């Protein structure tokens, strides 16, 4: 039993990371209806910026703040430069453009920082909390805490600020939002900036566990997709809960299903995506899309 | 979200085909010249270049499948390399474990890839193309550990090494030339097959699905049927290409079929030209030569070039190189009748 609980705790820790990247995906999807295939790569790029700063002697937390600011600006810039020209174009075009961005960012990181793996400092202390028979690493607690904090801040932003109100208006109906004087273009860019910032957090959280290299986020991206699909692509809360469920499911499957083991765990998100698409396509918390011809 | 259904100039718009008799004649003439050159080339080039051209043909067959799906049916796949790998491994396992003569492995590989494509296409196609992209990406990433797991069948991470097909004595050809001609025959065959498919009722149905799903449905096109079928066909063509790949390389290993292969193939067809028949050939040249040339600059250079080109092509020339060529031909002034 203790072993089982231990696996669940480990799964929650992994799930929190998937949740944070899923949150970034959902943020962009909500505003623009775009699923950003480059989200993981942008997070990886941000993590490299943090690594460069830390390697240059900047303290970890200051480096994090700088990274988040740079990521925010970078996300806005990408929306303005790369995504803007294809705004309103069919899904196929936009998906291809974000895939192009994926390839470009991945290769650019490889060019700048080479493909050798780098050690990334863990911001949390190494010890663990003993709760009866279960040990909870401080780093797991830290990850969960950070993701909870990000969730809380986003909630405050969306529900209790004027900017957030404008963003919700744009997400609901861009044309009406424009008519009441909201600058839709800039709001969309703001959405991308926010998503890049949230993604950067997930990159920084994942790097100490996976080692930093340009392909670090490819697997995480699949888990995040599964989390967003499970929770519903239009529900931030769903993305977080979906992420936690995916993390736990993956850890339990790896530990208790002999056939899956640690190498085939990447099949778990694939199964989850397929199952959700077949049984409840809008996800647990999403709204079913209704289309008008 | 509702905006995503509206079609736009800047997307998978049909290629700028020219339908005048003069242009058609011009086209057949060019095709004939190209074919003569293709037959002549292996007798003039060094074996290494013949090998490279063979690989261009292999990629072109795979891209033909991807083009059917992305360019003609408007669905997106980020896992085309996985079906390529399924075809390659089917051929390799049959040759290695069952000692099947190599020409027989091609239809089996095609059938296996087709069936797996059909099975995976059914759940993914019930929804919009976006989810297909997700599922196919997940498949492409999942396939590598899966191939490593079934070691007794696939040879694990070490892969399988096979004897390459030898040319029959009566041909008097060298090994590389023989392989080239096999690839050429497969490529021409599949191109003719796809070309006639697209001219038929099926082709028109696929184009209708791509251009406006709702209108297509109203006209009596069964969306899920045609989308799933397009996915299965594209998987089948990837499987065919994969089996020829196995003959040409004589070696398969999981690391040859990572998600990068799928992404390179998508890049190839986008740059080569979505929705045109010459797109796959241009894309094949692109996938083969751009990495090998640019790798000298930096390991990451192919990726940087691919990424930038994909984005640039989607902005300025959504029909790719083939579409650009088509537009240029259109601009040539013709005699007034």
UniProtKB/TrEMBL annotation, chain A:
It is a multi-pass membrane protein. Pfam families: BPD_transp_2. It is found in: Cell membrane. GO terms for biological process: amino acid transport. It comes from the Bacteria. Its main location: membrane. Keywords: Amino-acid transport, Cell membrane, Membrane, Transmembrane, Transmembrane helix, Transport. GO terms for molecular function: transmembrane transporter activity. One of its GO terms (cellular component) is plasma membrane. The chain crosses the membrane at residues 12-29, 49-73, 94-116, 136-158, 188-210, 216-233, 240-260, 266-285. Belongs to the binding-protein-dependent transport system permease family. LivHM subfamily. This is Branched-chain amino acid ABC transporter permease. It comes from Nonomuraea terrae.
Automatic annotation (TrEMBL), chain B:
Keywords: Cell membrane, Membrane, Transmembrane, Transmembrane helix. One of its GO terms (cellular component) is plasma membrane. It comes from the Bacteria. It is a multi-pass membrane protein. Its main location: membrane. Pfam families: BPD_transp_2 (PF02653). The chain crosses the membrane at residues 26-43, 49-70, 77-95, 101-122, 129-147, 178-198, 229-253, 265-291, 303-329. It is found in: Cell membrane. One of its GO terms (molecular function) is branched-chain amino acid transmembrane transporter activity. This is Branched-chain amino acid ABC transporter permease. It comes from Nonomuraea terrae.
């Amino acid at each position: 039993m203790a072993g089982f609980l231990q696996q669940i705790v480990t799964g929650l820790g992994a799930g929190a990371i998937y949740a944070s990247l899923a949150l970034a995906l959902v943020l962009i999807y909500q505003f623009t209806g775009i699923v950003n295939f480059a989200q993981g790569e942008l997070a990886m790029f941000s993590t490299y910026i943090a690594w460069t700063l830390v390697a240059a002697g900047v303290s970890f937390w200051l480096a994090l703040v700088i990274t988040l600011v740079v990521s925010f600006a970078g996300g806005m810039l990408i929306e303005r430069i790369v995504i803007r020209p294809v705004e309103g174009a069919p899904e196929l075009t936009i998906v291809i453009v974000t895939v192009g961005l994926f390839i470009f960012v991945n290769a650019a990181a490889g060019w700048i920082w080479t493909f050798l793996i780098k050690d990334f400092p863990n911001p949390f202390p190494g010890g663990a909390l003993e709760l009866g028979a279960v040990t909870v690493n401080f780093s797991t607690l830290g990850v969960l805490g950070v993701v909870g904090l990000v969730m809380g801040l986003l909630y405050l932003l969306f529900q209790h600020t004027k900017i957030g109100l404008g963003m919700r208006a744009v997400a609901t109906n861009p044309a009406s939002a424009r008519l009441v004087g909201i600058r839709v273009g800039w709001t969309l860019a703001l959405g991308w900036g926010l998503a890049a910032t949230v993604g950067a957090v997930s990159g920084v959280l994942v790097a100490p566990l996976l080692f930093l290299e340009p392909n670090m986020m490819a697997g995480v991206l699949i888990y995040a997709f599964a989390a967003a699909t499970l929770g519903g692509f239009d529900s931030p809360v769903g993305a977080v809960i979906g992420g936690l469920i995916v993390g736990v499911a993956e850890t339990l499957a790896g530990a208790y299903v002999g056939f899956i083991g640690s190498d085939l765990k990447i099949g778990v998100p694939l199964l989850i995506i397929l199952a959700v698409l077949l049984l409840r396509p809008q996800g647990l918390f999403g709204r079913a899309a209704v289309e008008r011809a | 979200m509702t905006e995503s259904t509206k079609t736009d100039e800047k997307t998978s718009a049909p290629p700028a085909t020219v339908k005048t008799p003069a242009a058609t004649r011009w086209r057949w003439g060019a095709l004939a010249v190209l074919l003569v050159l293709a037959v002549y080339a292996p007798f003039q080039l060094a074996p290494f270049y013949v090998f490279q051209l063979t690989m261009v043909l292999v990629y072109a067959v795979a891209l033909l499948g991807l083009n059917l799906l992305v360019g003609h049916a408007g669905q997106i796949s980020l896992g085309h390399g996985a079906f390529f790998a399924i075809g390659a491994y089917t051929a390799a396992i049959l040759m290695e474990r069952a000692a099947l003569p190599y020409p027989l492995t091609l239809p089996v590989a095609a059938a296996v890839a087709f069936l797996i494509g059909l099975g995976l296409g059914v759940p993914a196609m019930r929804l919009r193309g976006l989810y297909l992209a997700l599922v196919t990406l997940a498949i492409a990433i999942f396939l590598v550990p899966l191939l490593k797991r079934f070691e007794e069948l696939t040879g694990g991470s070490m892969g399988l090494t096979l004897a390459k097909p030898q040319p029959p004595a009566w041909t008097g050809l060298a090994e590389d030339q023989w392989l080239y001609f096999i690839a050429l025959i497969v490529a021409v065959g599949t191109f003719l097959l796809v070309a006639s498919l697209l001219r038929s009722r099926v082709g028109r149905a696929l184009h209708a699905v791509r251009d406006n799903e709702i209108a297509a449905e109203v006209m009596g096109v069964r969306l899920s049927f045609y989308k799933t079928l397009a996915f299965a066909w594209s998987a089948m063509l990837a499987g065919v290409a994969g089996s020829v790949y196995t003959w040409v390389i004589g070696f398969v290993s999981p690391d040859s079929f990572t998600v990068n292969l799928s992404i390179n193939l998508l890049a190839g067809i986008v740059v080569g030209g979505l929705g045109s028949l010459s797109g796959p050939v241009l894309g094949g040249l692109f996938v083969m030569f751009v990495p090998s040339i640019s790798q000298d600059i930096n390991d990451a250079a192919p990726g940087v070039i691919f990424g930038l080109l994909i984005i640039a092509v989607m902005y300025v020339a959504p029909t790719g190189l083939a579409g650009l060529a088509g537009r240029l031909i259109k601009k040539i002034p013709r005699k007034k009748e």
